[in-house]
Amino acid sequence: MRGMFLGLFLLFAGVCQAEFPIIVENAMPKNPAVATGYNQSAWNLYRQLSVAGGNVLVSPYSIGMAMSMALSGAKGDTKLQMQQVLHLSMNDEELHQGSQKLLRDMGRFASDPSVEMTVANALFINPDFELVSPEFVSLLSQGYEAEIFREQNLDLINAWVNQKTKTRIPKILDRLHQNSVAVILNAVYFKSNWAVQFDKEMTEPLDFFVNQDEVVQVPMMQRTDHYSLVYRDSYQALRMPYVSDDLSMVVILPMDKTGLTAFEESFNPYALQEILQELRDTQPSKVKVGIPRFRVEYSAALVEPYQNMGMKDAFSSSDADFGGITGQENAKGLIWIDQIQHKTFLEVNEEGSEAAAATAVAFATRSMAMTPEFIADRPFLYLIEDRGTGMILFMGRMANPLE
User: Fold this and answer.
1) Is the pLDDT of residue 1 over 50?
2) What CA–CA distance (Å, rounded) separates 61 from 54?
3) For 277-350, where are the E strands, in sequence order?
4) Superfamily name with CATH number, domain 200-292+353-398
């Protein structure tokens, strides 16, 4: 079968919205190696996608989980390149145990009727090609709790994603090549209320400075309450908790109204982790907050960004080695990743929301006579973090709330 087109598709879906409160009694221990790898790789991917400008929204958790499943089947140079780009340079056992632990930790929300959190994996196998080994099927089924489907039907694949994301992502794939071998899927769905909701009566149209030449009117949610706030010379960061204090949105706002691009260029995952830690350690204080109400639907093809980051063999019809999937010794060029699709949905409103972002620094307490302001009236970064695992669920940039 060498020389034939045998594509391996990796499809990711993520969705977030806020409506229902979350109650979590016991924080889970962190998964530093795997969660940190997911987060770091996603930041580099985000940087690739943000070059085009506009709104961006990715799910580090969804992408990380799906790529971990693909990495589990890689061998040789293909595996080394994927490990480096995904920041998952660990042995197979550590990868599987870390990813499985993340799944279990996220599962702690399933027993709470006041939160909607779904994390689901699936493997669709084309029965016309006997190129997916029983060992790989068993690994994904047992280690990643993946649903196994021994058929490849475009409608069924899209229906699975539609169901797992509660109809927020009704379709992830427009085409399915007749020679596709397998489809690996991950879906994440989450809903939550803010710990302190915004009063809809306080929402009013205010200016949002898209750039030096464009100003738009956006519905600005406003509230004065106690939040963790930290400052740097070039930006400030705010933590807005959901009902469960483990879950929060972090908003990073450049001081300069046109400074988001410059800020992104100087930022990195390690600075992000520092900021998140500072926000956790900073006691909430009274802050006047203004955040746009917005909704984002985002879609991206990830093959080219990953190639730019150094993951090349995985997409090569001659060099890809996924012997861990086929179970064959001489598997180079037998199957390769043909397509990676990622779609996300996010709605932020007065009741709650979810998102992705980064950056934070210690807040120097001001005079009690003054109330600090955090007014997001210009492009900003945002993220949704689970402090119980150290995992960033969603991360993005808001360039224009009206797009």
Assistant:
1) no
2) 22
3) 285-292, 294-301, 336-348
4) Alpha-1-antitrypsin, domain 1 (2.30.39.10)
